[in-house]
Amino acid sequence: MKHWSLRQRILGSFALILALMTLMAGIGHYQLTAIDAAKFSVQRDALPGLYYSTMIRSAMFQEQMLVQQLAEVDSTAQERKADFAKLQANTDRLGDFMKGYDSTIYRADDRANFEAFKVARARYLEMRQAVFALDPIKQRSEIHQAFVQRLIPEWERNRLLIQRFVEDNRAFADQSTNRIGDAVSTAKISMIVTLLVALACAMLCGYLLMRTITQPMKALQEALNTMRSGDLTQRLTSDRRDEFGQLESGFNQMADELTHLVGQSQTSALQVSASITEIAATSKQQQATATETASTTAEIGATSQEILATSQELMRTMGEVSAVSEQAADLAGNGQASLVRMENTMQNVMEAAGSVNAKLGILSEKAGKINQIVTTITKVADQTNLLSLNAAIEAEKAGEYGRGFSVVATEIRRLADQTAVATYDIEMMVREILSAVSAGVMGMDKFSEEVRRGMAEVQQASGQLSLIIQQVQAMAPGFQQVNEGMQAQTIGAEQIKQALLQLSEATRQTVDSLRQSSQSIDELNLVSNGLRHGVSRFKVQA
Amino acid sequence: MLSLLFRIEPDHYALDSREIVEVRPLCRLKQLPGAPAWVAGLFEHAGAPVPVIDLCTLALGRPAHDRLSTRLVLVHYPATGGPHLLGLIVEKATEFLRSVAGDWCDSGVATPDTPYLGQVMHHERGLIQQVRVSELLPASVQALLYGGTDG
């Protein structure tokens, strides 16, 4: 029950009361049905029964009276006929009443009694028929006797029976009426009881519901009051699971957020305060810096004045330098002409060296040819030697016959050796010539190289001189530009002076505005203190 | 007795002219792979292949210089199964030496690795030692060079 939600509680209470009311209605309906049944039995059974039985009884009295009149009083036939008609009508009426009563019978004992009455009545009617079958004039005494002795007791029996019907029906009617009364009173009591129970239940449910709502509301109110006083540490902990549980968790969350926010605000307020103090210090520094800037500006002004004077002096000096550089250009021009002449001479020397080289080449070629010839001679000598060797061998093989031939072979070999020596000498000489020629060629090459290098140096010097001339010539417009630049510098220095004056003015204004901002910072400091004071009212930690 | 003089480095050696068939200039030789380094190759003589050995390689381990005085001496080689021709490459073979048998004497030094070196003779150019052709080839090389023609 404790973890029921508020909605479930309200719905449950209503359902209980509705169920009680339905129960009450059911009981009422049941009792009214019982009353209705009793009413029905009174309406259909008791009252008509009473009516018909009474009517039957009265009809029987009338019938008995008519029978008595017929039997004892009537003397004329006319009278008898009239009475007969009356009796017949009465009998018919009685028959109708009996039929009517028959239709009101609902009980078994009633039915049995009625059947007995019907039998008795039939017997009576039979008897009466027998009595009226007698001649009324001649057999008067017999009729009278029959009437008195048999008809009356029979009728009496019938009357008693019908009397019992009347009483029976009356008793039944009374009983039914009493039953209705009982049912009504029972219904009254039960309705009162159910009403009381329903009322009690409704009050109990209402009380419980009220308690369920007011209790957490009170706790919430207390918590809110605490929070309003600035204490944010309070939290709700009823551990309920209904809507109030959700409300509490929401409240707690809100309190957490608020605590966090206020904590941040406190920190921020402290930071703001610190920052403002820093800003104030910085502003003071800026003020000092601005004052310094003003003094520095004055110094710069003086310096720019000096620059002005210096640049005018420099302009004069530049004029002198320009004249000197023109003279230097002339001298360099002369030097260049001499160098060109020198270069030409060197070119000639180079050509001569080339022709010497060519001649040496021819010499070398000739020596090579001589060498070829020497090689050929050497080969011939070698062949000759070989020939002499083989000849000697053959001669030796021939023994005594070959002796002369052997001498010839030896002679040939000697000649070949001499040839070889001579060719060796020639070869040596040619080799010497060749080495001398190649040394000459190498020397000439070196000489040519030197000349070439000298020429390159001359050309370089010439190029440098022409470069110098060009540069000196190019300097003239440069001097002009420097002159113009100097003039522009003079004007610029003047402008700097003006700008410095403006800067000085601006600095003064800056100092003023910094003073104003210092005031603003003081005000800001006051505001920040107020903020810190306001935020510190909150208590965020237990 | 006539001998062909040649040199191995500064020393003079002599070949008996009776063993010599012909002295020829150097010619292109067909190499013999697998043979010892001092077997210089083959050349064709009178329609038959003749093996050639290089005495410089045999004695000094370096091939002979390619000069005009370096010559190929064709000699008779008394191999098993009849005489064959053998070519010898020698340096500075340009001269003869005429001598008599009494000029030669034994060297008195046993040289088991060089059995081909024979008697020596005093000469104005220094000692001259004979080279014996029949001892030039060891049996294995002889089998290698002439084994193919025996059968």
CATH fold description of chain B? OB fold (Dihydrolipoamide Acetyltransferase, E2P)
Q: State the end-to-end distance of chain B.
A: 36 Å
* Rg measurement of chain B, Å: 15 Å
Average the pLDDT over all residues of chain B and give the rounded result: 86
Which chain pair shows the most residues in contact? A-B, 15 and 16 residues
Helix/strand order of chain B, N-terminal first: EEEEEHEEEEEH
The portion of residues forming beta strands of chain B comes to over 45%
Helix content of chain B: 10-25%
Residue fraction in strands of chain A = under 5%
- Average pLDDT over all residues of chain A: 85
Counting copies of identical and different chains, the oligomeric state is heterodimer
Structural class of chain A: mainly alpha
Q: Largest sheet of chain B, if any?
A: 10 strands, mixed
Task: List how many beta strands of chain B DSSP finds.
Answer: 10
Family (chain A): Belongs to the methyl-accepting chemotaxis (MCP) protein family.
Domain Methyl-accepting transducer (chain A): 268-504
Domain HAMP (chain A): 211-263
Transmembrane segments (chain A): 189-210
